[in-house]
Amino acid sequence: MLKKKEKYIVAVVGATGAVGNEMVSILEERNFPVGQLRLFASERSKGSTINFHGKPVSVEVLKDDVFEGIDIALFSAGGQRSLDFAPAAAKAGSVVIDNSSAWRMDPSVPLVVPEVNSHDLMWHKGIIANPNCSTIQMVLPLKPIHDAAKIKRIVVTTFQSVSGTGMKAMNELHEQCTAFLNFREITPKVYPHQIAFNCLPHIDSFLDNGYTKEEMKMVNETRKIMGDQSIKVTATTVRVPVFKCHSESVNIETEKKLTANEVRAILSSKAGIVVYDAPQKNIYPLPIYVAGKDETYVGRIREDESVENGINMWIVADNLRKGAALNAVQIAEKLIE
Ligand SMILES: NC(=O)c1ccc[n+]([C@@H]2O[C@H](COP(=O)([O-])OP(=O)(O)OC[C@H]3O[C@@H](n4cnc5c(N)ncnc54)[C@H](OP(=O)(O)O)[C@@H]3O)[C@@H](O)[C@H]2O)c1
Fold first, then answer.
1. Is residue 133 annotated as part of the catalytic site, yes or no?
2. Cβ 42 under 6 angstroms from ligand 1
3. What pTM does this model have?
4. CA of 260 to the centre of ligand 1 (A)
5. What residues does each domain of the chain span?
6. Which residues make Cβ contacts (< 8 Å) with residue 86, sequence separation at least 6?
7. Shortest CA distance to 217 belongs to which of 138, 162, 163?
8. Considering the domain 135-319 in this protein, what is its CATH number?
9. Grouped pLDDT means (10 residues each) for the chain, 337 residues
């Protein structure tokens, strides 16, 4: 358990990655009370440095015995590293906030979006899981609607940016766009197909039921975070050639009737949500404008005319920030409150 202190020793594991880099920036931006920052990555990053509050911090190689004295460890180095090292960190007394999917569905590990279920932080035993990026931005606006009208069913299609796959995928999109526009041959490396000027209805690996792991994460994590196993969820997750921000087309059916205006009113009053919805003036959330923002943007709110109590909406958030690094730092902020 975390002891109250003026300043904390904070570790970022996977500091050289897309999410890790963002974590360091967000700790700095939000003036998190960091007494000492420790940065970890693989052997490949040995000797590199990352600036924090204007000073270079050396990246260390991740090992089992590095966690002594670390108060909070933000993990973002892939599932295998989380499985291998998070228990050692927790045993050494650190509170681990893990970005990978390794611990999310473990019943002894809380899965937390602070605006939705910060009460679940009460029962952590040293490891807290940060949900999947697509799930975070969906449950944030859906929870207050669920509280007001009880959601029975969610149908979601995602349009997920390449930064969701990490640094290598961002480089791949860049390189493929350049190659395509210069009539050069494209050889996909990160994804099974060309991502430039294309859409791939395939995120993570396929399961026996025909869904991908990413789609089933949205189903299972949504129920765990919202604390309601009765909500029916079906998802189709699509990778699109966008650098930052995931977009989602979300359709919900509720027990109680809500009008589009009522939904706008509910969402407008909630922290972390911006209702950006004036389609007559071409105003709706767009990845290029939401990139770098902390809030989750919701627009195109309208009643689904094909069912009795249905609502459609379009949700966009920065997957590296609210979908990952910011949510993790917000959990840390709740812990020290
Ligand atoms: N990208 C997102 O939007 C997003 C959202 C939610 C969750 N996540 C999760 O966050 C994690 C990181 O994602 P990312 O997008 O930041 O990936 P990334 O850009 O590929 O970065 C991976 C990081 O992990 C480190 N790493 C890899 N193997 C390691 C090892 N054996 N020992 C120590 N460090 C090692 C890398 O260090 P080197 O530079 O030294 O290789 C790098 O710092 C993943 O579990 C991912 O599923 C990502």
1. yes
2. yes
3. 0.97
4. 39
5. 8-130+324-336, 135-319
6. 73, 75, 96, 98, 102, 103, 127
7. 138
8. 3.30.360.10
9. 92 97 98 98 96 98 96 98 97 97 98 98 98 98 98 98 97 98 97 98 98 98 98 98 98 98 98 98 98 98 98 98 98 96
